[in-house]
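S1.2 Input.
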Amino acid sequence: MNQIDTGKFIASCRKEKGLTQAQLAEKLNITDRAVSKWETGKNMPDSSIMPELCNILDVAVNELLTGERIEINNYEEKANENLIELKRKDENNMNKNAIISTIYTIAMVIGIMVCCICDIAISGTLTWSLIVLSSVLLAWIAFFPVILLGKKGVLVAMIAMSVLIVPFMYILSILIKVNEVFHIGAIMSIISLVYLWIIYIMCRRLKERKLLATGITFLFAISFTFLINSTLSKMIGEPVIDIWDILSVLILFIIAAAFIIGDHARKKVI
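S1.3 Output.
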């Protein structure tokens, strides 16, 4: 299985069907840039798109992965080769991710140990190092699934953060002996989590339209900026919005507009 061979095969089949890259992209509801990346061997089609792509090009998935038409008597052999190659790639990725995850964990442990030793040496007991410990543990739980599993770990990390962030804010408020940390921090954390979940779901839905997804993300950031400010205003009596907030919103709007216009321009070309 070779990405370049697969790309050339996609281009050949597309031309046989009399389709341009833009027309094929439109049928799959993706960008022509994505098709171009397939055909130049830079990327492989996503597994969720492969069945529809094969149906349009009138080829089997096995032929797409092999990068050539397969005679019926060689079909099973090629299928086995592709399965073995896919398994080997998955194993290599898992081994690499496992090594990186181990290094990440060791670095976290060393950091915690250094902080605890310094804290005991200075204070005679564990004081401020407990804040570091709880923060590092939360960071480890949040990032470890992503490092180990890649994109598949994002959902695990999101669920873990959703479950642990409020208890973390409670523990933090106890450690620093400031109740407002929990009262304010928990609410801000929940609002932030809602924002992150919206972004996650949107990016999953628009994974082939990254420019549009990014633009909408910045637009949502504007809404959540006002929501956070109004919530803080009620809790601590600060103004709902000041000049810096207005400037931030303006910048976010300009960035969002740029990405959305860019996506529209790309779709117009298609």
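S1.4 Remarks. The mean pLDDT is 85.
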